[in-house]
Each structure stands twice: as C-alpha cells, then as structure tokens.
Amino acid sequence: MRLIAGEALGGKAVIETRTPVLLQDWTLSPGAEVEIPVPADFQVFAYVFEGAVRAGPDGREVRDGQAAVFGSGDGVRLSVPKEAGGAARLLLLGGVPLREPVARYGPFVMRSLGSTSPPHWDARASPGASARVATATSLVQRARSRSETPEGWRWRQPSPRRGA
Questions:
Q1: What homologous superfamily is domain 2-95 in, according to CATH?
Q2: d(Cα 117, Cα 120) in Å, to the nearest integer?
Q3: How far is the C-alpha of 35 from the C-alpha of 21, rounded, in Å?
Q4: How do the domains of the chain map onto residue ranges?
C-alpha cells in the first residue's frame, strides 16, 4: 500500500490537508484479503484501475474501471480470489462530508456560482480561452442577478478586445 494522503496502518502521509482525508494506492495479489480501518464518520469509496477485487462484507466483485461506495462503518474489506489472473490495483479514497454547496464550471470548483467568476476572468488571458469568456460572462450576469457575489469581491469588467 502506498499512502498518498491521510493516515493508515501507523503511518502518516507527507501531504497535509485542511480536512481529514484518506487517499491510498493499493496493490493486492491473488489470495490477498485485507480489512482496512477507517474513521466511522468518513465516506469511503474504492476505484479499481487494474484487475478485480471483492469489496465489502458481501464480497461483491468490482472490476477495472468500476468503483465501490462503502456504507457507514469503521472498516473496509477488500480481497482478491486465489484463482485471479493477476494482482489488482485500486485507489481507496475517503473523507468527512463537508455538507457545503458546490458550484462548478470547467476546472473551477467553488462554493457558489458567483465565486466561480473571478478565476474565469483570470483565465481569459490563456490561449483558446476566448470561447469560454462568453459563457463566463453569462455566469457572472446570472450570479449578480441572484446576489451570490461573495462579500468583498470586486467585479472586474472584461477589457475591450482589439478589433471588436
């Protein structure tokens, strides 16, 4: 197991996070069976990207390209049958649900639609971004009409484009 973020099996990852998370890269050989302890308040899922594993108390098969979402509890059970053709690889991810609204547009993820706009104005200078500016403009207009602008943010107007 490679520990990417969080704590596991007595070890602590080098990456520090503001909220408790777990991000682990597992390689399980045929015949392997593990019970991984996780905090009871975490939401956890596994994404298999090579081979197949049996996940959860009922041993449901999860194959390459599939994910398993685990219910509440204090552990995750994973296994690979002895007769499997090779090792299985998966990412185990989890954390405490933040229970906050999420607004997203392209690569930008914020708490409200209004707060996604300033990064879009910064992105207009990047190559190929001009097509996205029109969409960002409509997002800003909608956010302004809904009064979703975070306090203290100043709206920057787009500068006139040459030749327009």
A1: Jelly Rolls (2.60.120.10)
A2: 5
A3: 18
A4: 2-95, 103-145
